[in-house]
TrEMBL record:
GN (gene name): yraO
InterPro entries linked to this entry: GmhA/DiaA (IPR035461), Phosphoheptose_Isoase (IPR004515), SIS_dom (IPR001347), SIS_dom_sf (IPR046348), SIS_GmhA/DiaA_subfam (IPR050099)
Keyword Zinc: yes
Cofactor: Zn(2+)
Name recorded for this polypeptide: Phosphoheptose isomerase
Note: The reaction produces a racemic mixture of D-glycero-alpha-D-manno-heptose 7-phosphate and D-glycero-beta-D-manno-heptose 7-phosphate.
One of the protein's GO biological processes: D-glycero-D-manno-heptose 7-phosphate biosynthetic process
Function: Catalyzes the isomerization of sedoheptulose 7-phosphate in D-glycero-D-manno-heptose 7-phosphate.
Molecular function as annotated in GO: carbohydrate derivative binding; D-sedoheptulose 7-phosphate isomerase activity; zinc ion binding
Record bears the keyword Isomerase: yes
Cofactor mode of binding and number, as noted: Binds 1 zinc ion per subunit.
Organism annotation: Paraburkholderia ribeironis
Residues binding substrate: 50-52, 63, 92-93, 118-120, 123, 173
Length: 195
């Protein structure tokens, strides 16, 4: 393996993050405000995605329920990606497209937030979850890349779209992880004060 190839990954990642710094700071700040307001009102955050985005949904929920960098009471978050019995039952009895929307219908309440993660904006089951969230009067925070894909068409004016300015899945996922850490840090700062 070429050291130069490895170093190029670092350079590419840094370049996308620096470009994203300018375009994503405002929507991330809006997402923090929205999530904190929901949590402060006794609501919760549901998160979903596929593949690496499923792992990101779980990572986010774990940081809220446990802690990010400072001790605090656990915050209500659910990764819709984790219950294999529910996922396989819904995929088998209905369709893979409904594995998240059925859960949003069952668990989501007005005022909750859906964190919808898809690098392309094309994931049919995430799009269906967004539609279900709207029907349940929830706000959506969408993390995408590659221009946002069809997700742009299903988001409402009250939703927040954090679209990474890249077409490379690995770079998008790296910025999604940084965004998740920004969300957790921002929620903690609003809850506990700046440290």
């Amino acid at each position: 393996m070429s050291v130069e190839r490895i170093q190029q990954h670092f350079r590419d990642s840094a370049a996308v993050k620096l470009e994203a710094l300018e375009t994503l700071s405002m929507p991330i700040a809006a997402a923090i405000d929205t999530m904190f307001a929901a949590l402060a009102n006794g609501n919760r955050i549901l998160a979903c995605g596929n593949g690496g985005s499923a792992a990101d949904a779980q990572h986010f929920a774990a940081e809220l329920i446990g802690r990010f960098e400072r001790e605090r009471p656990g915050l209500p978050a659910i990764a819709l990606t984790t219950d294999t019995s529910v996922l396989t039952a819904l995929a088998n009895d209905y369709s893979f497209e409904q594995i998240y929307s059925k859960q949003v219908w069952a668990l989501g309440q007005p005022g909750d937030v859906l964190l919808a993660i898809t690098t392309s904006g094309n994931s049919a089951n995430v799009l269906a979850a967004i539609e279900a969230a709207h029907e349940r009067e929830m706000i959506v925070v969408a993390l995408t890349g590659k221009g946002g894909g069809p997700m742009q068409e299903v988001l409402s004016d009250t939703d927040i779209h954090v679209c990474v300015p890249s077409d490379r899945t690995a770079r998008i996922q790296e910025v999604h992880l940084l965004t998740i850490h920004c969300l957790c840090d921002g929620i903690d700062a609003m809850l506990l004060g700046e440290d």
